[in-house]
Amino acid sequence: MIISVTLNPSIDKYYEVDELLPHQVMRAKVVSNTAGGKGMNVSRVAALAGEAVTAMGFLGGHCGNYFESLVDVSNLNCAFTKVRGETRSCINIHDLATNLSTEVLEPGEPVTAEDLARFLTDFEKYLPLADVVTISGSLPKGVKPVFYSQLINLAKKQGKKTILDSSGLALAAGIGAQPTMIKPNLHEIRQLFLEDISTTEDLVQIGQKLNAKGVEYVVISLGEDGALMVCPEGVFSGKPPKLKIVNAVGCGDSMVAGFACSFQRNYTVEDSLRFAVAISAANALTARTGSFQEEDLKNLLKEVRIQRL
Ligand SMILES: Nc1ncnc2c1ncn2[C@@H]1O[C@H](COP(=O)(O)OP(=O)(O)OP(=O)(O)O)[C@@H](O)[C@H]1O
Ligand SMILES: [Mg+2]
């Protein structure tokens, strides 16, 4: 079983309007609500790929109940810790005239020390049932960056594999706890090292530095150029074919889901990278964020190129 942690989930509201006009009333042509947050994308993709997933984090109020009702994938079990504050919404308004999106992200209610303590109790209850733990996204207000390290330490103590996909201070602090894998994109890796990183050699060096710090698998995702994986088995690049994409949001999350499934199935390093690149590229071929078509995955698995560097 895979535990996916989403501490700051949201109801993602998507509107399509003919034209986005400030200070005017607009009527939405298309409305959709999704149980969102980066970890929820991971949960959905891993569950769609056939793995049992337990989604954990904080949910609150009527919005929290509504969020749970939006989870529509079998073998995805919600085990969120309930809090007082209402679960937030994030709004994406898509302007059909320009094909551009405008987003409004609610910050969400802060969680208390007591909420965190209850979450840890819940987390420890589910941990023995899990093989892999994924931790994704930002921290709610009131949670210190070191909290992710705490989760990684608890999981490692029970011999579970951990994948951390975050940014900034939360990523930096989490690395200190030596998760099994991190999956920064180029922007996140530059933010972390504040260095001029541009060539593949630079990325390999950074990956090896992180290996030396105790992160066994460093995967740097490069959008349409695929991903670079630096690990004890060597350095590998995984490249998807050139695609006509529909929606690339959540590709990174789908990649994390791909690696979580691969850990669960004990794939070799090459097969893990192939599966993760294929499933993340398949996500870009569907409109729904954090989703894929079985047929796309099947085709992409044949087309992804894995190379040892
Ligand atoms: N345009 C694309 N064509 C094919 N594959 C893609 C494309 N964009 C992303 N991918 C696949 O998804 C993986 C992750 O994408 P990316 O590097 O954009 O992650 P990210 O920035 O963390 O995304 P997010 O945080 O929005 O989920 C890539 O390594 C690649 O395999
Ligand atoms: Mg990402």
Automatic annotation (TrEMBL):
Protein name (Swiss-Prot/TrEMBL): 1-phosphofructokinase
Keywords per UniProt: ATP-binding, Kinase, Nucleotide-binding, Transferase
Location of the Carbohydrate kinase PfkB domain: 13-291
Superkingdom, taxonomy of origin: Bacteria
Hydrolase is among the record's keywords: no
GO molecular function, one term: 1-phosphofructokinase activity
NCBIfam families assigned to the protein according to its UniProt record, in alphabetical order: 1-PFK (TIGR03168), pfkB (TIGR03828)
Coiled-coil region: none
Species the sequence originates in: Flexilinea flocculi
A Pfam family: PfkB
Source organism phylogeny: Bacteria, Bacillati, Chloroflexota, Anaerolineae, Anaerolineales
